[in-house]
Predict the structure.
Amino acid sequence: MKKKRVLSGMRPTGKTHLGHLHGILENWRDLQDEYECFYFAADWHALTSEYKNTALIKESLTEMIIDWMSVGIDPQRSTLFVQSWIKEHAELHLLLSMITPLGWLERNPTFKEQQEELAEKEVNTYGFFGYPVLQAADILMYKGNYVPVGKDQLPHLEITREIARRFNYLYQEVFPEPEALLTEVPNLVGTDGRKMSKSYHNAIYLSDSDVELAAKIEQMVTDPQRAYRKDPGDPDVCNLFPYHRIHTEAAVVANIDTQCRCAGIGCRECKQILIKRVQEFLAPIQEKRQYYLTHRSEVEEIIQAGTGRARKVSQHTMAEVRDAMRI
Ligand code: TRP
Ligand code: SF4
């Protein structure tokens, strides 16, 4: 039986952090067992918010794909590629833009939110407004059945489905309607308690050295009610505890849970346990990263090969699209 197809993209706008890893990439990795997977660097999408700082996109792009491979996304099994290297994405974006009513884009909640959030970046542009149309082109191009995304991306996926329906209705049945595969995102906050994000300078990166990592975890905000070592704590409100749940053995986590509540363990000791666990977790990832960072031409070849495979699919789809539209 033919495997169903999964497709997802990530914008190259900085270094990979633990939020990306546990929230998205581990899911991408596990999906490889069951599906034919296409994963790509959405550098044109990065441009919608970073058009003034294109150097960042260039710097992040290869490293981001290296990070994917370092956490087990396997270029032998999955097709890894770069959006902007496949010009068919631009063509499909343009064609789909012709049939996308403005209202669908105006209603898009992420458009409004992001405009406020990124006010200083001036995202009041045509390109940014059309972000979901470009995303629809990415997805429909590969006739993806499933799209693993976080909750924040659901409105974009809904627009993709609407565009697919409209295309199929106006011309010919070309596109399957993709479904979201909602990623269970663990509640990992940054070191200051806010959402982990490079713009808040609170992220733990895959590339952090042991020393950097220890420093970051040591300054993490724990239970704010716990002022002194002798005060009992509450793991349920502690920013550190969700990390323990991911990185520490269940028996130890259970022990921390009870000991914290009766002041049997202090935050400093608790942090030292976590530092060790995360260091052990990152060590093999960093080893693979180091390998790829020093074997750049091998990485280039991998990305070229993946992009070549993706291009074949995209050319095939575009032939169908032009045929359906008689253009
Ligand atoms: N918008 C997605 C994000 O910011 C990135 C993206 C671009 C994407 N094209 C896609 C995700 C296609 C899934 C499918 O995370
Ligand atoms: Fe958090 Fe650990 Fe301190 Fe409890 S002991 S408040 S779980 S850091």
